[in-house]
Amino acid sequence: MSFIEVKEASKTFLQKDKLFTAFEDITLNIEKGEFICLLGPSGCGKSTLLNAMAGFDLVTKGSIAIDGQEVKAPSTKYVTIFQNYGLLPWRSVQKNVELGLEQKKIPKEKRAEIAEKYIDLVGLSNFKKVHPRQLFGGMQQRVSIARALAVDPEIVFMDEPFGALDAITRMKLQDDILKISREEKKTIIFVTHDIEEAVYLADRIVILTPNPGKLKCVYEVPLGQHRDRTSGDFLQVRDKIFQLFNMKPDNKIEYII
Ligand SMILES: Nc1ncnc2c1ncn2[C@@H]1O[C@H](COP(=O)(O)OP(=O)(O)OP(=O)(O)O)[C@@H](O)[C@H]1O
Ligand SMILES: [Mg+2]
Hints:
CATH class of the largest domain: Alpha Beta
Structural class: alpha/beta
CATH topology of the largest domain: Rossmann fold
Number of helices: 7
Number of domains: 2
Number of strands: 10
Order of helices and strands: EEEHEEEHHHEHEHEEH
Oligomer: single chain
Strand content: 25-35%
Bound molecules: adenosine-5'-triphosphate, magnesium ion
């Protein structure tokens, strides 16, 4: 049995009296501790699949199970990080990170201790008392990463978490999340439409194609833990993924599938 098992799963929506299939017949097994990227162009059903895995939505065919239990609703064992950070503007960084701990009824002092540990881990020790609006986007996303990790989840679902950030900040956060995923030994399911990001982060890349969203292949990234975006090996893997999408790296057209 795998940790996460997606079996012949499909999701169909009713859109203006017509049935619309967001993803179809997806079978996928994920092991504990893996860093998985779901990669594909806009509209191929990445978020819908992620939401179904996280229990925010149900599949209409097939099944999704985590740890042998069919996913029917969100669980406190898993957290989701979105692109727009989802921070509460009226709460300080510290209080935002404590949010999930309050829901878990952790006593006040313990809460503060855990929150501080994770705020330190994401490099925001000097910003505990400030409010989210006083922080740059990358720092806000760090707060939401700290908040997610503070509840010690078994799985972290991330939906294009760095999509709104500039390239440099994005690279820094990619390094942070890699380091954290190794230190904290989390299973991470990370949605992106950025091929380089997937090659930099993932143990395995789940490649999805649109209309309807289908699994094209699962690609095991043949690179070690410390990846260099400029190395020949890295570029070779990146080009291979571009080819799987039938496009060249210098192609300006989004995706031709
Ligand atoms: N609640 C819903 N009701 C109807 N249709 C939906 C719903 N949610 C998603 N869809 C449709 O399903 C398709 C897949 O959407 P989804 O958001 O999963 O794609 P995505 O791969 O995450 O795209 P993006 O990269 O733009 O975020 C889209 O065509 C979308 O319009
Ligand atoms: Mg999406």
